[in-house]
């Protein structure tokens, strides 16, 4: 499971001039949008705001860094992507972009994003961005993904870093609040991906990816989804009690986590026969809930920060 499959010769045949759309898809725009949103939340929630132009530039370079990591992931995982139904139409396995071109674009954009973020904001933010790109492309994609069912758990740190990068871009320092934001995304990642893996297990099995559903079975995956969902709820409440939180965030956190925990409990109590009979309806519902989970939490963080700056924030009453 740890080695890459050889790339068929026909997969290396690419159009002479791939369209811009193919290059844009190579940057994983959906993942990039989540990175931009959570990085923006970290920047907005920070106690110090940079000049609007520098703030916009920082978010742009963070987005480019995320795209660089996506391109490097698609380069390395092209053999896996080709074997999975949901990824076989990505630009590299579909033959739209050559693997070497994807690699070179990722390296170039990664270097550009780190240097420009350092110049636009500060070198702490740039170093954190460089770490994020390296962790996703090397630690997760090259090392962990094909070797351990903990790939999503450990590798999730890369996707969790953007709010810390945004906070550092604004303040030039670190604090407890952005670390709690990182923890929120970190503990969200396993139940999010494992909910998906419950109903696309055959894809991972075919591709030889040791996802938890493949190595330990769906029953153990359901148990761990519930366990991580409980830790996730506790992390959200801890963030709500921090200076970045407040009543608005706590209200959203109670609502979102109550729904998420209930859905995770329903999934935990099911068996394979029941799930197959209804087309994994509960598992798909949990996955859909996970898609909106971070949006509501980070939107509430930004709203709380803006209300506080406008003098409309409500203090916590003990």
General description of the model:
This protein is an all-alpha fold. It has 15 helices and no strands. Helix 2 (29-45) crosses helix 8 (162-171). The termini are far apart. The relative contact order is 0.11.
Secondary-structure topology with pairs:
Elements: H1 20-26, H2 29-45, H3 52-76, H4 78-83, H5 99-120, H6 123-144, H7 151-160, H8 162-171, H9 176-199, H10 201-207, H11 212-215, H12 217-240, H13 247-268, H14 272-277, H15 281-309
Helix pairs in contact: 2-3, 2-8, 2-15, 3-5, 3-6, 3-8, 5-6, 6-7, 6-8, 7-9, 8-9, 9-12, 9-15, 12-13, 13-15
Write down the domain tally.
Answer: 2
Low-confidence stretches: none
Helix content: over 70%
CATH H level, superfamily name of the largest domain: UbiA prenyltransferase
Whole-Å distance between the termini? 53 Å
Q: Kindly report the CATH topology of the largest domain.
A: Tetracycline Repressor, domain 2
If you average the pLDDT, what whole number results? 91
Global morphology: flat
How would you characterize the largest beta sheet?
none
Structural class, from secondary structure content? mainly alpha
Q: How many distinct helices?
A: 15
């Amino acid at each position: 499971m740890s080695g890459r499959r050889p790339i068929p010769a026909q997969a290396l045949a690419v159009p002479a001039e791939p369209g811009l759309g193919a290059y844009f898809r190579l940057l994983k725009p959906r993942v990039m949008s989540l990175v931009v949103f959570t990085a923006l939340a970290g920047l907005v929630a920070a106690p110090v705001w940079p000049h609007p132009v520098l703030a916009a530039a920082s978010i742009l370079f963070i987005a480019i860094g995320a795209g660089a990591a996506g391109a490097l992931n698609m380069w390395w995982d092209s053999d896996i992507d080709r074997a999975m139904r949901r990824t076989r139409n990505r630009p590299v396995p579909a033959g739209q972009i050559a693997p070497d071109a994807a690699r070179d674009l990722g390296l170039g954009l990664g270097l550009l994003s780190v240097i420009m973020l350092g110049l636009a904001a500060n070198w702490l933010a740039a170093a954190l961005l460089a770490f994020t790109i390296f962790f996703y492309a090397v630690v997760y994609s090259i090392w962990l993904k094909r070797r351990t069912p903990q790939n999503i758990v450990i590798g999730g740190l890369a996707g969790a870093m953007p709010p810390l990068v945004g906070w550092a871009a604004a303040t030039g320092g670190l604090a407890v609040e952005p670390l709690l934001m990182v923890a929120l995304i970190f503990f969200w990642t396993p139940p999010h991906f494992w909910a998906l893996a419950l109903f696309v297990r055959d894809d991972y099995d075919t591709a030889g990816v040791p996802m938890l559903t493949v190595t330990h079975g769906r029953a153990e995956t359901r148990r761990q989804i519930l366990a991580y969902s409980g830790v996730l709820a506790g992390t959200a409440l801890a963030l709500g009690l921090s200076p970045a939180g407040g009543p608005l965030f706590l209200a959203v956190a109670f609502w979102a986590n109550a729904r998420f925990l209930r859905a995770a409990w329903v999934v935990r109590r099911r068996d394979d026969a029941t799930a197959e009979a209804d087309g994994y309806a509960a598992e798909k519902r949990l996955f859909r809930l996970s898609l909106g989970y971070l949006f509501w939490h980070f939107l509430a963080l930004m709203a709380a920060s803006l209300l506080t700056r406008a003098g409309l924030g409500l203090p916590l009453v003990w």
